[in-house]
# Entry
Amino acid sequence: MRKRIMLVAVLACAAAICIIAGSLFFMDRGVRAIDAADYMEITAELEAGSELNVLPDSSEGVPGMKLVADNSDLSLYFNADTTEVAVMDKRHGKVWYSNPSNRSGDTLASAFEKEVLSSQLTVLFRDSVGTLDTFTNFARSISNKQFTAESIENGIRITYTIGDMSLGIDALPKYISKARLDEKVLSKLDESVARYVSTRYYPREGNPEVLERLDEQVSKQLVLNKMIAAFAKAGYAEADLAFDNEENGSGSAGGSSRPNFVIPLEYRLEGGSLVASIPVGHVKESEGYQIRSIEMLNFFGAADASDEGYIFVPDGSGSLIHLNNGKVKEEQYVQRVYGFDPNDNSWRRGQVSESARMPVFGIKAGNAAWFAVIEEGDGIASIAADISGKKNSFNYVYSSYTLRGEDELELYTGSKIQEIQLLNDEIYKGDIQVRYSFLAGDKADYSGMAELYRDRLVAEKALEPLNEGEDIPFYLDIAGAVDKQKSMLGVPYSSVISMTTFKQASQIAEQMKQDGIGRLLMRYSGWFGKGVNHKSPVKLKTDSVLGSKSEFIQLSQQLKQSGGALFPDVAFQQIYHNDGGFTPSSDAARFVTREEAELYPYNRALNRMDMSLGSYYLLSPAKLPFYVDTFMERYESFGMEGVSLRDLGSSLSADYRDDRVIQRETAKQIVVEQLSKLDEGMDETMISGGNAYAWPFADHLINVPTSSSGFIITDEEVPFYEMVVHGYMDYTGTAVNLSDEQDVKQQLLRSIELGSAPHFSWTYEPSSTLKYTHFDAMFSTSYKDWYDQAVSMYKEANDVLSEVRNERMVKHVRHQEGVVEMLYSNGKSIIVNYTDQAVNVGGNTVEAQHYWIGGERS
# Structure
């Protein structure tokens, strides 16, 4: 009996252990992941090339170059010695060069800088111990004739071998038989040289008939040079080396041990554009060396010191760097497209700036301009620009591409800290593609660039025109519940408090309706999952401190009946609670260091992460479809017609998990698919931030950039972003009451200039309630403090902007500092005077801190 009881107990324990182990196993697997390979745009097979075909040229052509492609708008020329190309715009008689045609006469540039000016590619790479190095294709390929050129449809492909292709020590056999060394080498040399060679080989242990190279001596450069010269004098050829390596099992010892890379660069003419591309899937790296990034066409269309104009960069709403502006001591402009990657294990921020939300850049020089759009690889792209007078005499802007993730690993050895630079092993395998278009005359400015970009997006159905006849929206952020630390008997605990209940939000909406604001678009944050920083969006239960689900639904119906809408807000990519719907070990992204991507908010005073502010995890992009699908399924029961997406249109993060590396470009493809699903499933979507890839799926954009970062090297901010999207979707910037600019009059003028609707962020409870929470940045949100100003601002803005809401912005002009004009496609013109003095523009007086409306509706 006792044995039976013990047996039962043992079996019960075993069963319990199995159940627990099984539960832990399945918990560790987390939620369902997609196959990231399905979203990777891997380079297809290269188009078959043919022998370079030089076309007959009836024009004067480009001196020193041959015509290799031609259409009705453009001609493409190629220099077979330098591999530079030139594009002749036959419509305007302008030639644009891949490299400055007058670079040889640059008295400022050093010999090294002239090599850089002559390059089309710059490769940054690391060796096996993490040392960073840089190769340009001029110094390491073109000057050594290590390239081939071939014709492709409507263009040319140049394949560069960048690096030292000499074999070095491996030009000599590692192992060779005594007989072969005597026959092939020693017998053909004089006695002293033969003796010199023979003493650098010694019998191999265990097989004295085979000799081994004495690398300790031969690796010295002087010895190596003598040995290679001796073997060459003896007539020892590549076939002999291959035979000896094969006979003695040296394997790949004859391969180069030096860094070298094979990179194809293609140019094609497509209508009025030049398309430059790198099929990265066909890039080759020598063993032990990994490419970190590639810079492409750094000096395409560069402007020299005599040119007048500017560089356009996508900093925030848009920014101009005046040519030759003399700021030679300032750092160059560099920004990642779509903002920095949150998957960065760095405690300190490099800079606080607006994001570059568009993959575009360009140059205006005199009465001509070019404009570039990054069409593929934009998720891994950065844009850089600089002026003349630093390293050379040219102004230039270009794109670069991060092919691998990079991070620092700190190793602690006693009291010392050693930092090792790490690259993830898997390289980006898609294409890089940039489209260069050309403008002239009155279209050769940033307004013309915006028009060109917008028209292309409209043709691609990425932008759809707005309906006519509606008021502009009033965008209102409502903060519902937030988490707050409390204590009982000295014991701290986390609680959820209400800042605005559903009924209180209803009261605000009713009050605004009574005051004539019907088109109220309410973005409600913190409605489920423990407040604004909510749980993973898989269990959608309204927070009880706010009211019931039925009250939430009634709020939505109330807004709809008055002409507005409710947009409950949800975040997908940042997970603030480690609950049953999220398992960090499997569902979180990983840093390059393989750690889980757990981050902390930045302390604004210290500009570094602050652990006291709580942590959050970055969701792996591979898990994003599961959360979106689950959210949509559960959200359906609320009967909502709109949704606000907090982070899908503003942030892109990679995942460097060993068995599932997802680069930012792949993450972009995954996010775009989720945006498409949400757009199809909802009547209206509101997207925060507004990266360009999100535009096709947005009905409303909030928190769009309305200014630039103000980098010292830049000179002027322009509303390029607004000029592209105006007339195709409603949009607004950051909340007026949380802006750095607290002058509501100035905010109104800015809204009128940019065509953006008013936006406020409110709570029903006083802002002081947020003291000692993670939301103390919401320092001025009590709606009663702002209500009258907000209503007044909206009514005035609506009177002006409703007339042009669905019109295109066709021209932006800065008449003088603080005085700007926006012209619309219906003939309307709005002049805004930010200054303290009345000004006269074109015979029209614009009062101080006011605006003037002119033109006739066409």
Observations:
- Residues 808-858 form one domain.
- The longest strand covers residues 260-270.
